[in-house]
Amino acid sequence: MLIFYFGPFSPFLAHFSFLSLSHVLLSIKHEIKALGASNSPILRENNPQNVLSMG
Questions:
Q1: pLDDT tens, 3-43?
Q2: Cα 46 from Cα 18, distance rounded (Å)
């Protein structure tokens, strides 16, 4: 049982937390990209460099 549990720190729990965090970060990144895509015509109209800096 020592392989699966080291004191208060469980490798399974750590792996699960890491996956959850990765999923959240990817979701946020995806949301930002979607927002950037929907706003790009407006940004391009005002300042073309804004679109490039977001990428």
A1: 555 556 677 677 778 888 888 999 988 888 887 766 655 55
A2: 40
CA dist 46 and 43 (Å) reads: 5
Question: Which are the contacts of 55, defined by CB distance < 8 A and separation ≥ 6?
Answer: 36
In this structure, which amino acid lies at residue 3? I
Tokens of 7: 């004191």
Our count of domains for the chain comes to 1
Domain carrying residue 28: 2-43
Residue 55 falls inside a structural domain: no
